Amino acid sequence: MQEIQGKHAELSIERPEKLILIARALSSQVRLDVLMALAKRTMNVGELAKLLDVPMSTMALAVRTLEEADLIMTDIQSGSHGASKICSRKLDTISMSLVPHSMLDGPQPLTLRMPIGGYSSAEGIMPTCGLLSATQSLGPLDLPRLFYSPQRFDAQLLWFQQGFLEYRFSSINSLADAKIDWLELSFEACSEAPMYRDPWPSDISVEINHKRLGTWTCPSDCGGRKGHLTPDWWDLTNTQFGFLKTWRIDQSGTYLDHYLINDLKISDLSLGTSPYISVRIGIDPESEYVNGINLFGEKFGDHPQSIDLRIGFSF
Question: Is-contact 250 182, C-beta < 8 A?
Fold first, then answer.
């Protein structure tokens, strides 16, 4: 198996080409230092060379090697002194299977994908708010009632100042006799400001089966460059991309991007009592920073995914 889901890559010895490419890219201290630097913010090649005190030629080769391995992504941006290559991280975690898939014990995780407009309810939505498809605005802006328009299923970018969207993922029949060991939820999001703004902190909360997994304080409404997937018709003065965040809950606790944030466990979610798994994403009006949310679909932002729910289970 070989698959990239959000900012996580799963590699297998059965398909060694990608594994070899990534191993080669990680075999240099300079390239590892580049990944460390890009964990903090995006930078161009010149900034990386200055920060790490290496020649531009060395840095250009390091960036190209990391880009070929899909560990980073780059974007050419024009400026007053000519074009520059902007670099950002593409992967945060990698897992490698050194055993053929046919020899692995137990079932493989199940991935359920939900379009951002596939929510079942829109609760307490307040302006500023709006929905866009890949080609146009889906009605007038700042009208919360439009969040129940049938056109919402075409949404590729949506935003609101406060409130929650609830997504209901089916409890698949094939899992009826299974024990769910863990859940992972990932989506791309950022704060919501007029146009875009940095800093612009906003407290984005996530709940599963009405249990609060936690609240992430997003630092900004992201813009200033084109999102890698954002269509050309969407003006550069608007929000362009977000942060890909991964929430995980298992029997040891709840994690955000692999960092333990609380002791809420998978057994606390009462997953066997409903025909669906409820996922709520939004802005609690009681939070410290009530500065909105942008949610990105697979055709907007930097990451080709909507809302992914991965389920690890055993029989």
Answer: yes
Residues 6+ apart with CB under 8 A from 280: 164, 165, 166, 167, 205, 206, 207, 208, 210
Q: For 120-178, what is each residue's pLDDT tens digit?
A: 999 999 999 999 999 999 999 999 999 999 999 999 999 999 999 999 998 764 455 67
Nearest to 275 by CA among 155, 120, 150: 120
52 burial via Cβ count (<10 Å: 0-12, 13-18, 19+): middle
Distance (Å, whole) CA 169 – CA 183: 12
204: nearest Cα among 135, 96, 292 = 292
Length of the chain: 315
In the chain, % of residues over pLDDT 70: 91
Euclidean distance between CA atoms 262 and 252, whole angstroms: 9
SS (H, E, C) 146-191: HHHCHHHHHCCEEEECEEEEEEEEECCHHHCCCEEEEEEEEEEEEC
User: Burial of 191 by CB count in 10 Å (0-12 exposed, 13-18 middle, 19+ buried)?
Assistant: buried
pLDDT above 80 (res 111): yes
Strands 110-114 and 43-44: unpaired
Distance, CA of 116 to CA of 139 (rounded, Å): 16
Element (H, E) at 123: strand 121-126
Instruction: Give the C-alpha separation, 157 to 151, whole Å.
Output: 12
Residue type, 16: P
Question: Is residue 276 within 8 Å of residue 210, measured between CB atoms?
Answer: no
